Amino acid sequence: MNPALFLASIIQRWPMAVIGVTLSAALALSFGLPRLEFRTGQDTLLDPGSKISRDNVRYQREFGGDPMLILFETPPGGSIQQLFTTANRQRLDELTRSLEDSGDYESVITPLLILDLAQTQVRERMVQQPIKLAEDQDRAAAEARAEAASRGASPEEQERAAADARQRVVDEFNRQFGADARRFVEVGDQSLDNPRFVEFVLFDAEGKIRPELTGVFPDERHALMIVRLAGNLSIDDSSSAAASVVDEAERYQFDGVDTLTSGSPLLVKEINDEMRDSLLVMAMFAVAIMTVVLFLVFRARWRLLSLPAVLIGCVAAFGLMGFVGIPLTMVTISGLPILIGLGVDFAIQVHSRLEEETLAADSAEIGIERMAQKLGPALILAVIAACVGFLVLHLSEVPMVRDFGSMLAVGAVIVFMMSMALIASIVFLRERVRLGPHPSVRARIEVERMVGGITSRAVGRLLPIAIIALLIALVGFWASDRIETETDPEKFVPSNSSVLTDLHYIRDVTGSTSELNLLVEAQGDKLVTDEEVLVWLWQFERRMLDRHPELRRSNSLGSLTASLTGGAPTADAAERALDTLPSALIDSVVSADRKMASITFAISGDDSLAERKALTNAVESDANATAPEGVTAARAGIVVIGTATVDAVSSNRDLMSFVAIAAIVLVLLVVYRNPVKAIAPLLPVVLALGASATMIYAAGIKYSPLTSISGPLIIAMGTEFSVLLMARYFEERASGAEPREAMSRASLRIGRAITASGLTVMGGFGVLAFTNFPLLNNFGSVTALNIGLSLVSTLILLPPLLVWADGDRHFVGAPSDVVTEQ
Q1: Residue 436's pLDDT band (boundaries 50, 70, 90)?
Q2: pTM
Q3: Complete domains list, the chain, with CATH
Q4: Which helix (H) or strand (E) holds 229?
């Protein structure tokens, strides 16, 4: 039985009961709203079972999450030594203890900690350098003596060669370390209370920051505090921890030193907070746009009735999502204005056709029955086709995109059912008690003539239209592959973001605000503290820094040990370091069981995600190709997760569109049992996609990662216009009209409803264009453009195609066949 006809029969008998049951169901489902979970963890970005996701979870479990950065800055002409006055050191200690005691952070590495380490290194070098000098002299003398002996030199000549070699070693030592050695003797008290000693520790003989300290002391006026968040936090928890760093840093005032706090977790927090806050704003914009469209274009009594009906349906839909566990994510929150637009689209069709049939029959009972019999199957088919397109998003590798597809499918069904029940019941009640003739209702903008003019001019001109459409589609397919996807993460947020401004300032000072992390693991009996592994770590870092200029500096157990010894790391030196270094430094480079190690590279901040993907792939590949046997390396960190997510979103863009087309054609083929009827509704959508791609390419616009998933949505909703127009054409043919006349009537009678529907769906997506985030802005504007083009191409291409197929080729069949199919 036709479900719409069944609902109509119930409404005819108990309209108030239908309204009551529908509102009660909506109220009951609304209790699911508190159950809605805003899921923001890594598992919404990547499949938890993927290798990258698993590696990142293990890395963060051991070494923590992303860093927050506190920049200390002295005024122009000042020196960062000001940070280490007695009072400022005390405040640094208090700030450090406050952060560490919170338990939200894996490690807190402060300038004072690094200065203490540098102080230890200096003292150790001053002790070890004379010993190393003597060893180097003895080795050089022995080599010179042996070389002279091999030439047949006399013992006296051999000793002179040895003495010369010793002197060369001394000369080279004095060239490298002589000035420092003299400065060290002159500094006096070797404590941080002595400004001359602090200056000696920070600056070399030429007055420059020592190279090994530039990661924390980028220049003479700045220092950096690195607060690494605990690993595997949700975006909510990460945002809270990042905000706490800002609050704590602002609590402490340093004499003669200003602070600035930022970091990628704070940028993610801004995106997260703004998108949540914009949910209500987007809904209000959507309602405003729907009101304008209904007021200007839709011609019906109580023309705004669709809005409250659809809003009730949206409450029920989101409540059901709470009950079934479909989460809200950074993508799915954009679904509310889309569902409002889609729901108003459905409601307009029911409202318009019910009034039309009631007016024609002068009977509310007959009107609702005819509406259900004639419009019901086509509208249900359009909803099914839309849901099929939405569910194709489950082919995506990104969990939040799959959730987006589920949300739209569930939401479309609920909103359709509730808006249809409420609109049909309320209009039926109004018409049943109406006294006197129907009052005349006029829209502010008469669209019937416009639609009728387009279709009448198109009918009979299939060949030129088809040729132009084919050319546009082909050019569009060519252009589609050449439209770039924006992969610069900083382009996903507003350029006027204060967080982004602060992040840029810190990046300009330090050279980097982001990291590439490598998880190094030793298998079997091997340990990452083995000398072979330590030397490889040290050499690998140096090689990567030389090979990739976008890598600014690095840190690992190997390079940390080398900085203490002044040469290649050794196992003994590493063990001494692990026994004496602060836990914040140790925990950031090696696990307690010595089976895992971290390599952290600082990355310049002006690369796109595509460039970073190539970089991370190259670094990981080189690491695994050169690592000692039994040692493996894997990428980790927010840079890796970001590149993998964008890649996953964009990777099967074309596949999802093709599957959506194939799936909808299959549904239409099952319903209509005619290949022309199954394929014809999709042709205008394909034309629209081609035209859109051509326009976007010509304008030089880039896709955002979200825009990459818009294909199935456009195909799903664009098909609705074609199905409704085609169904109305079949209906007019069934009444005995000839093909041209049937198309003229169909376009005239459905023109206003289908145009209003198209504009409301466009409005639902267009609302996203008013958000402050380019990521959603691009998605909304491009999708709205495609929906508009789908509507226009439906009115231009489908009418001549159906008339040609029916009149010239008899594909549609006789009117009696059409009645049977309907």
Answers
A1: low
A2: 0.78
A3: 3-43+269-488+647-821 (1.20.1640.10), 51-60+497-646 (no CATH), 67-262 (no CATH)
A4: strand 222-229
